[in-house]
Design goal:
- The relative contact order is 0.18.
- The longest helix is centred in the last third of the chain and has 16 residues.
- Helices cover 40% and strands 16% of the residues.
- The chain has a single domain, classed as Rossmann fold.
- With 170 residues, the protein is of the alpha/beta class.
- α5 links the parallel β3 and β4.
- It has a five-stranded parallel sheet with strand order 2-3-4-1-5, sandwiched between helices.
């Protein structure tokens, strides 16, 4: 079953994905300005889901999950694997392969820019320090916060219920 926006609605035990369109627009703007954009956030805030929603509307995109042995094998020679790619390249869990940062430096300096890199990882200070040293001036950071109260459907229902209840007492 689909909602009126064409997105699937799950009933039962499958959760409904929360649309984080504002954050997608912000990251997309950064990708236009910088060859590398890092989305950081606490565990389970939706960095991977956000990246997937951004690249789903892109004609050319490639995704590497650095927790997946098959993707790690594809990156055995990272320069060879990345240099011919076009569009948006997502590198999820990049903190597992810090040796990729110098390669991203080289690829970010190419003209014309063929690919933009969307790197995902926890907000680990080591990751931030390492990427900022090797990618200075080439990388933008976007901190994805936890869900805001306005982003959850339950909060809207609770809020409207409270407003109705408070009006009925006067």
């Amino acid at each position: 079953m689909k909602s009126r926006y064409g997105r699937p609605i799950f009933h039962g035990r499958f959760p409904r994905m929360i649309d984080r369109e504002f954050h997608a627009r912000q990251v997309t703007r950064l990708l236009r300005r910088f060859p590398v954009v890092a989305i950081q956030g606490a565990r389970q805030v939706g960095t991977t889901t956000l990246a997937n929603s951004i690249v789903s509307s892109t004609e050319h995109s490639v995704r590497f999950d650095l927790e997946n042995p098959a993707d790690l094998a594809r990156l055995a020679d990272p320069m060879l694997a990345l240099q011919e790619l076009k569009g948006i390249v997502v590198l999820d869990e990049i903190q597992r392969r810090p040796n990729l940062f110098p390669i991203l430096h080289v690829l970010a300096d190419r003209r014309p820019i063929r690919a933009r890199f969307l790197v995902l990882g926890g907000a680990a200070p080591a990751l931030h320090r390492q990427s900022s040293e090797s990618l200075a001036g080439r990388i933008a950071y976007y901190e994805l916060p936890g869900l805001g109260i306005g982003e959850t459907r339950a909060s809207r229902q609770i809020g409207s219920g409270c407003a109705a209840a408070s009006r009925s007492h006067f």
